[in-house]
Amino acid sequence: MSNLYKNKAKVFCDTCGVLSLNSIDHRSKMLVGVCRSCELTFFQPNRKKWEAGWRPSKDEIKKFKIQNEKSVYSILNEIDNYI
Predict the structure, then answer these.
(1) CA 76 to CA 83: how far, in whole Å?
(2) Closest CA to 34 of 60, 70, 51, 10
(3) Which residues pair with 3 in a beta bridge?
(4) What is the pLDDT of residues 27-50, one digit of tens each?
(5) Are 29 and 22 in contact (CB under 8 A)?
(6) 55-79 pLDDT per residue, tens
(7) Do 46 and 54 form a contact (C-beta atoms < 8 A)?
(8) pLDDT of residue 10
(9) Angstrom distance (rounded) from CA 59 to CA 44
């Protein structure tokens, strides 16, 4: 099985583990192997280190996931207040 096929089959980000099904995340997974949020947060600022094998620590990923959850909950709260 080729790497291209493996990347197509995944719906969870290899870094943060978040389920993502939109086309933007899919494209990032095909190019970099992670969701768009992880691409912007971890890959883009650390491209050379990433290509040399660097990956964020478990603590960095944990902080990232907490921040993302806060963002999602605040958006959902605003939607709920609007409705």
Answers:
(1) 11
(2) 10
(3) none
(4) 998 888 899 999 999 999 999 999
(5) no
(6) 999 999 999 988 877 665 555 555 6
(7) yes
(8) 73
(9) 19
